[in-house]
Every structure is written in C-alpha cells, then in structure tokens.
Specification:
Shape: flat
Strand order of the largest sheet: 1-2
Number of strands: 2
Order of helices and strands: HHHEEH
Keywords: Membrane, Transmembrane, Transmembrane helix
Number of helices: 4
C-alpha cells in the first residue's frame, strides 16, 4: 500500500510541474530575466521542499520527524536564496577572492552543517542511555 508521505511527495512534484507548465503557457519563465529565475526557484522549492513543508506544518511524524523536516527546509531555503544571490551578484570579487569561490564554500558549509546536524541528532536519539 502506498504511504501518505509518498502521495504527498508525488503531489508536490505534480504541483511543481504544473507551475512550469503554467509559466511556459504564460511566457513567464522564458529567458534569463528575474521572472524566469523566480519560476525556477519556485519550481525547485516546491519540487524538493513542498511535501516536507506540508508534512512539517501538519506535524506528521511519519518516517521523518517534523524537526528534521524543518531543518531540511531551512537548508533548502539557504541554498536556494544563496543561489539567487550569487546569480544576481555577478562576477564580483571580495578582495582578491571571486564571489563564486565564496559561494561554493557557503554551499559546502550549509550542506555539510545540515548533514552533521542530522548525524548528531540521529546518534543522540539512538544511543543507549
């Protein structure tokens, strides 16, 4: 039998595809302007985080605890917003360091911090007292 979480995640993927189709039909997401960027960020946010957001708001502790869903959504938001910031900041430098190098380090720290946090939480939940 298909679980409720699977149905929710498939619904989020379906909604993300609908966003792309509607944006394409309205000629919003074509090109490289701010509208196209907003459509792609919305698509990725719904695709990767829509199901988790719905289940986290409901407080549904299915296979993944709600706290872990909120941490994942925070990481996803940081990565998506950081990507948009880097996209619009262009080819700037901070001293002699390019913004691309700083952003790569930022993304590695965000994702690495998320994985480390999840590992520590899982260890603490499953270790014997």
């Amino acid at each position: 039998m298909v679980s409720q979480e699977t149905v929710v995640h498939f619904g989020a993927v379906y909604l993300a595809v609908v966003v792309l189709l509607v944006a394409g039909a309205l000629d919003i997401g074509d090109g490289t302007g701010p509208a196209a960027t907003a459509v792609l960020v919305l698509f990725y946010a719904i695709f990767f985080g829509g199901g988790h957001l719905y289940l986290a708001i409901r407080g549904d502790d299915g296979m993944v605890p709600s706290d872990a869903r909120w941490r994942y959504l925070a990481m996803l938001g940081a990565v998506l917003s950081g990507g948009v910031l880097v996209l619009y900041a262009g080819d700037r430098t901070i001293g002699t360091i390019t913004l691309e190098a700083v952003s790569a380090a930022f993304f590695v720290l965000i994702v690495g911090g998320y994985l480390l946090t999840e590992t520590i939480v899982a260890y603490r939940e499953h270790r014997p007292e």
